[in-house]
Write a structure and sequence with these properties.
2 helices; Translation Initiation Factor IF3; alpha+beta; 110 residues
């Protein structure tokens, strides 16, 4: 099965918490992203909107994203909030070549 093509213009994270109705942008994680900061952003988005999307390109960025998801899940679990995570891949065409985006779609499950 071929991976869908990723469109950064459609990369959104559900409804905006500010009430504007504009979609919240997906959280993009880099290899240099601080795990605790990303975890805080994930937890905040889950609390506010009930869902979030995290995107990472490359193995180091995916590693940071997975660690941040685990930390956020631990914090939210302490508040009685359960989360579910679906992982998907999409192709991205960049001037320097094609890359694969790993997308983590998280949502409140309780």
């Amino acid at each position: 099965m071929e991976a869908p093509v990723w469109d950064p213009a459609r990369a959104t994270n559900g409804a905006s918490a500010d009430g504007s109705g504009r979609p919240r942008a997906a959280l993009r994680v880099a290899a240099s992203s601080a795990v605790r900061s990303v975890a805080g952003a994930i937890a905040g988005a889950i609390r506010a909107d009930g869902s979030t999307e995290i995107q990472a390109i490359g193995p180091e960025a995916v590693n940071q994203a997975v660690k941040a998801i685990a930390v956020a899940e631990r914090h939210l679990g302490g508040e009685g909030i359960s989360v579910a995570c679906n992982i998907s891949l999409a192709d991205l065409s960049l001037p320097e070549g094609n890359r694969t985006v790993t997308r983590f779609a998280m949502r409140r499950s309780s």
